[in-house]
Design goal:
Mean pLDDT: 91
Helix content: 10-25%
Structural class: mainly beta
Distance between the termini: 16 Å
Number of helices: 1
Order of helices and strands: EEEEHE
Number of strands: 5
Number of domains: 1
């Protein structure tokens, strides 16, 4: 029997990819314009499905200037 694939349930911000960036936080524009921008600081955790949508989580994981680590949980 195949195991269920685990989905990313949480994102952890590791900070800017370039240490000389100088930025203290990332201002992330939400897909839903009715929601306020997110200010994400290094060390912050974001819950997928609560703090950010799955689409927004994918965008953050693929962000070229900031590092995010996905934490997988049960599907």
């Amino acid at each position: 029997m195949a195991e269920k694939e685990k989905k990313i349930t949480k994102l952890v911000c590791k900070g800017p990819r370039n240490e000389r960036n100088g930025a203290l936080y990332l201002r992330f524009k939400r897909e839903d314009k009715r929601k306020a921008d997110l200010l994400v600081y290094p060390g912050d955790s974001l819950i997928v499905g609560k703090d950010v949508t799955e689409q927004e989580a994918k965008k953050l994981l693929n962000n070229p200037t900031w590092k995010f680590e996905g934490v997988k949980g049960n599907a």
